[in-house]
Amino acid sequence: MGEIARDFYTIRLARSADVVFMAEIEIDAFVTLRQALGVEDDGRTVPRDKLEHSLYAKLLLVAVNDLDHPLAFLAATELDGAIYVVEIDVVRQWQRKGVGRRLMQTIIETAQMRGASGVTLTTDRFVPFNAPFYASLGFRVLESGEMSVGLSEILRFEIEHGADPERRVAMARWF
C-alpha cells in the first residue's frame, strides 16, 4: 500500500491556483537538465502571462499527487494549426516514473480531439530525456523547410538567446 500511495498521481487541467507552483516545479526540474548539459545557468521560468494564456486556452495540464499538489506541468498553445508544447517539467522526485510521458500523451489526445494538425515542440537534440524521449512518442525532428512560420520563429528566437544551434531542434508528431 505504501508504494501505491507514494506513486499516486493524476493528470488534470490546471486551475488558477496551480500557476503559483509552476516556477518552483520548473526550477527543481531544471537541476536535472543543467547536470545533463553541464551548464552553470540557473535556467529561466516561463513567464506567468504565458502560463495564464495556456490556462485560459485549456492547454495547461498538471500532474498532482494524492493531496492535489502539483508535481509536474505541461503548458501548450495553439500555433499554426498545431498544438505547440511551450514547457514540460517534472520535479526530480517524480522523474522517471512516467509522469512526463502521461502529460505528453494527454496533450496529444487533446490536440487530436481539437482537430489540430499535430503537436510540435523545440528541444535539445542529444539529452536522452529530450529529443530521444519525444521520438519514443512518435515525434520526429523537422528540417527547416518542414516548419511552420511560427515554429521557425520560436526556434530562431531560442538560438538568438543562447541555445546551441547544433543541439536545438524542432520536432513534430503529425496526425
Low-confidence stretches: 1-6
Write the H/E string, N to C. HEHHEEEHEHEHE
Taking Cα atoms only, what radius of gyration do you get, to the nearest Å? 16 Å
* Strand order, sheet with most strands: 1-2-3-4-5-7-6
What is the mean predicted local confidence, pLDDT?
90
Number of E strands: 7
Descriptive overview:
The protein is 36% helix and 26% strand. It is of the alpha+beta class and 175 residues long. Strands 1-2-3-4-5-7-6 form a seven-stranded mixed sheet, sandwiched between helices. 31% of the residues are buried.
Would you kindly provide a brief summary of this structure?
By secondary structure, the protein is an alpha+beta fold. The chain contains 6 helices and 7 strands, in the order H-E-H-H-E-E-E-H-E-H-E-H-E.
